[in-house]
């Protein structure tokens, strides 16, 4: 992609990614569970929140600077943990982490990444966040926590909304595997993806970097769902957080909170931050959008932890809407995945630039100079989700 300046919004990246990334991996990103109603609502509910346009305010000096868990960030955005990112683009996790570092925002590495904790640490030489699933094999979890510490990770993101795997039709129909099996259908599709193939040929990383060795033979969606059913711990309960927090000993973010009762329990469990998230509409279809769930959680938490939101954020305007309703920051999943698939590290950097510009300009048009000036009065109808 020579001229990324002509990519002006995330939908451009999505179109490019659809063209450039093998169908099974593009579909893996662009899908939700069952009817995908929650996946769609995550995006469309943002549009229901209208801004108040304000004029004749001196907004020449503006800043999107903030702190996330006490660490300065150029804007209130972090890259969400996403599995198989190294299949959207060769070495995808390393490149996305480097882009996040260059842009001054946190990157989160998924347990189910292609590049390992050690790969990302060696490549970026900078702290990042590590996302952990709760698994039955506690010694494996302990090993992952210790590896995250050794890799200098600055926060542990514990995902609570995947005790069982939500069904995504497309993955089953596509026969998702990593790497793709050399079937005629896959080979014909790969033949139309020269950019992806030319990058992928340069790297040895093809399967789950953090769990390879532990989960032998797990590469396709059916063996992954069997492994998930066997490994991911359906008995997980709030008491488990205690030993994880103790073993980790650093900042803990609890991800997948959608109800005020659970937010309260997360506060009681000692979370430093929570992520209001329905896993991007990939788990419980029929749950509300994340933005609709946010206000009640903000009211319940009363500032006792930081609150991040993810799900459906496709630009800086969505960031501003989430902040207006009380979030301290947002995480982006598909927005950066599409950019990565379209154009690698430069794509992710451009994605962050687009979001930052959109946030800054929208703040200005609402008459706000700093994030401290952003509250519900930025919106005309802030109460629609109360
Ligand atoms: C995810 N998500 C996710 N979450 C997590 O905690 N661990 C993981 O491994 C993954 N994997 C994953 C893969 C893909 C392809 C997607 C799209 C999402 C959920 C992710 O962290 C985040 O909650 C959503 O992506 C947010 O929604 P948007 O921004 O994608 O709409």
Structure, explained:
By secondary structure, this protein is an alpha/beta fold. Helices cover about 40% and strands about 10% of the residues. The strands form 2 sheets. The chain has an 8-stranded parallel β-sheet with strand order 3-10-9-8-7-6-5-4. It has a two-stranded antiparallel sheet with strand order 1-2. Helix 4 (about 90-105) crosses helix 5 (about 115-125), helix 12 (about 260-270) crosses helix 13 (about 290-300) and helix 14 (about 315-325) crosses helix 15 (about 335-365). Ligand FNR binds near residues 29 and 131. Its cofactor is FMN.
Q: What share of residues is helical? A: 40-55%
Globally, the shape reads: globular
Rg is: 20 Å
Percent of residues in beta strands:
5-15%
Count up the helices. Answer: 15
Mean pLDDT: 95
Question: Helix and strand succession?
Answer: HHHEEEHEHEHEHHHHHEHEHEHEH
Cofactors and ligands? ligand FNR
Number of strands: 10
Distance between the termini: 43 Å
Cofactor: FMN
Protein name: Alpha-hydroxy-acid oxidizing protein
Binding site for glyoxylate: 28, 133, 168, 279, 282
Domain FMN hydroxy acid dehydrogenase: 2-384
Features:
386 residues, alpha/beta, eight-stranded parallel sheet, two-stranded antiparallel ribbon, globular, binds ligand FNR, L-lactate dehydrogenase (NAD+) activity, FMN_HAD, L-lactate dehydrogenase (cytochrome) activity, flavoprotein, Alpha-hydroxy-acid oxidizing protein
